[in-house]
Amino acid sequence: MIIRKLAATLGLLALAALPLAAPAATEAPGANTAPAQYTLPTRLVDRYGVGEYDGTLSLTVYPSGIVQGYYRPDDGSYRTVTGGVDGKAIWLDIGSGFRPLHVSGTFQNGKLRTVAALPGADVYTFESR
Questions:
Q1: What global pTM score does this model have?
Q2: Facing residues of 124 across strands?
Q3: CA–CA dist 122, 126 (Å, integer)
Q4: CB-hemisphere CA count at 13 Å for 124?
Q5: 45 near 55, Cβ under 8 Å?
Q6: How confident is residue 32, by pLDDT bands cut at 50, 70 and 90?
Q7: pLDDT tens track for 46-88
Q8: What is the DSSP secondary structure assignment for residue 27, as one 8-state letter?
């Protein structure tokens, strides 16, 4: 129980300072061989809790399926983002070090719908708005 609470607390502390508003999603024009650029306003929500954490996710999606970018919380720092995409399926690791936030789900037409992998019974969704 203590480990679960500690892990959940660490995950939430890493995301505690997220912006309340973010710009709309945009996609850079280009050929099929050029990487696609996305800037997504996002939110992290505990399905069984109250409130949400908002932020901005900037991604470059390469034709090979590699995803790179950064996540910008409200405190002005940036967290690196790495991951991959295969068709509609996507996975991302947000942040580095001891406990990056791992999310997996779908990414289609510039819309992100994922579930955050945090220990415990709570279910956290991480999605674009």
A1: 0.70
A2: 46, 116
A3: 13
A4: 21
A5: no
A6: low
A7: 888 788 888 999 999 999 999 999 999 776 788 999 999 999 9
A8: B
Q: Residue 66: which of 81, 79, 85 has the closest Cα?
A: 85
From the list 128, 81, 82, the residue with the least C-alpha distance to 109 is 128
Looking from the CA of 121 toward its CB, the CA atoms found within 13 Å total 3
Determine the Cα–Cα distance for residues 74 and 25; give it in Å rounded to an integer: 18
Which residue is associated with the tokens 């956290």?
A: 124
Cα–Cα distance, 71 to 58 (Å, whole number):
6
Three-class HEC string of 39-77: EEEEEEEECCCCCEEEEEEEEEECCCCEEEEEEECCCCC
Radius of gyration of the chain, Cα coordinates, nearest whole angstrom: 14
Average pLDDT over residues 85-110: 90
Tokens of 95: 């942040």
What is the CATH code of the structural domain delimited by 2-128?
2.40.160
